[in-house]
Design a protein that fits this description.
Blueprint lengths: L6 H10 L10 H15 L6 H16 L2 H10 L7 H8 L3
């Protein structure tokens, strides 16, 4: 079975138009995905460290407890979790 871990493999599958299980991705889903990604590609950025922090929070919250992620951010000299991030990522499930 092919390796199906990581964002790079997902991006490669999308570029091929197939899901990780080999089934085709419907054209309307690909069209919408590409449309939204084009908008994101054209968005002005505020800085690399802001983007890094955003990705760390968004992805880290899936794998790391709130307390640990907050400590890790502080240890790396990023701003701590914001109340709205805590509510969104760690609120009632």
């Amino acid at each position: 079975m092919a390796e199906t871990k990581g964002a790079d493999e997902v991006d490669a599958a999308i570029a091929r138009g197939v899901d990780l299980n080999g089934s085709p991705i419907p054209s309307e889903k690909l069209k919408l995905y590409n449309q939204v990604m084009a908008l994101e590609a054209g968005r002005q950025r505020s800085g690399v460290t802001n983007t890094m922090r955003s990705r760390i929070v968004r992805i880290g919250a899936k794998h790391i407890s709130q307390e640990e992620l907050d400590r890790m951010l502080s240890d790396a000299e990023f701003p701590p979790l914001k109340d709205k991030e805590i509510a969104f990522y760690y609120g009632a499930k």
